[in-house]
Amino acid sequence: MNWLVLGLAGVVEIAWSQSIKPTRNFTQPLPTLICFVLAAVAVYLLSYAMQTLPVGTAYAVFTGIGAVGAITLGIVVQRDPLSAGRVLALSMIIGGIVLARVTNPD
User: What is the pTM of this model?
Assistant: First the structure.
């Protein structure tokens, strides 16, 4: 169950990462509020998952999901450049997440 919560925390982390830019350096009230709420929800879910998962594993998976999602959305939505190096980096992050999951003693 906590792996599912951790996955959800990662998805909220992705949404949070995308909510930062619209705040325009935290000068726009509604986008700033949304950004803070998403951050709080992501951290709450992460802390819940950490009740039974090792802290290091949970945090690495959480940030890995966030990084993969942020890079992917940047490429798809923001038209960030795609290169072989970025694809390799994404593959390595995803591999690390999978490895952390399958080698976790739960």
Answer: 0.88
